[in-house]
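Audit log entry. Action: structure prediction of a protein-small molecule complex. Ligand: coenzyme A. The ligand was supplied as SMILES and no pocket hint was given, so placement is left entirely to the predictor. Protonation state taken as written. Sequence taken verbatim from the request; no trimming, no tag removal. Recorded inputs:
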Amino acid sequence: MEEISPGLENVYIKYTELTYIDGNKGIMRYRGYDINELAEKSSFEAVSYLMLFGRFPDSKELMEFRDRINSNLVLADYLKNILLAMPEKSDALGMLQTLLSAKASEELNYKYSKENDRDKIPEILGQVLSMVANIYRIKEGDSIIDPDPYETYSETFLRACFGKADKNRIKAMDSALILYMDHEIPASTTAALVTASTLSDMYSALASAVTALRGPLHGGAAEGAYRQFLEIGSPEKVDKWFNDNIINGKRRLVGFGHRVYRTYDPRLKTFKKYADMLAATNEEKNILATAKKLEETGVKAFGSRGIYTNTDFYSGIVFKAIGFPVDMFTTLFGLSRVSGILAHITEYVETQERLIRPRAIYRGPGERKLE
Ligand SMILES: CC(C)(COP(=O)(O)OP(=O)(O)OC[C@H]1O[C@@H](n2cnc3c(N)ncnc32)[C@H](O)[C@@H]1OP(=O)(O)O)[C@@H](O)C(=O)NCCC(=O)NCCS
């Protein structure tokens, strides 16, 4: 008898040379390189290039890649008008989804070609930077701008958002973009692959990914973890909150547990470093102290069952200290996934070219006649 695999669990749909994960040992690598080392020593553009093209760029290639991203930072007037027409209270990720879908409408006579798709990647990275920066600005009641290009993607992005950026925040943003760039094929990347496997254009595939990212089972954990710290309020209240809500209230501890990891998520190390470095105000320090106490309590209670802190536990503290409000966290996650998703799309379409089309087993009534 045929069997189904709910959630496509344990179904493999592609070979990949992009991301390696060992969930028991807490190891994660991009094309063989340790994730935390990349975050410390490389840059978002160089790691994107590595993911997309299989090797690091030389300095001339890196400069060209940056120049091409920077020459695509201006959004078309119709995209700006769409943004202006949306209420300030709109969901940031929903706004990104709308802009990507609108941009896909430009792909009027799109016909898949490996060369054209690869050539389009820097354009997409530039456009998405400008979309996310302007979404942030509009939600803050600010004006839409054409971002000025700076030395790195992260600096261009932060200056477009805030008009300023210091060295530590730029480095923290760059590390976050690298750490979140790829994680094999979660729901959002899979949604992009389904669309790309029909040989649709890359903006449509990205819009599909962002649509899947919106649900609370996927993209929203950094926001959920941060709201949990706010709800607790201070380190002294952790024990009672944990007993009332997690042990007796049967709520799940957000930022804990993972389908793949049975130990600490390796990306935590770098996020924690930047949380320590950037938390400066009394409120930020209090949230960080609350998070640390909660982590200690959570590991004591769940560690023996292989449930440990995941990356979303500390990433929100970093995004907040960089200057973003909580309701932008998932969209920042979306921004950082773009080059990883594009790398998976190109890898899939170029090597397998197979339409993703699973089956369902029919269990409805047999033949019936209309009266
Ligand atoms: C991420 C997550 C969905 C993965 O879960 P999963 O591998 O599908 O594991 P399950 O949901 O089957 O849970 C297995 C057991 O661990 C428990 N568990 C898993 N994560 C838990 C958490 N964060 N808090 C409390 N209990 C947890 C479950 O209650 C379940 O217990 P049971 O066997 O007694 O019923 C889950 O850990 C979770 O909900 N975490 C909180 C949300 C979060 O941080 N998401 C970000 C993921 S990157």
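Audit: result stored. The chain has a mean pLDDT of 95. The chain has two domains: 19-216+327-351, 221-322.
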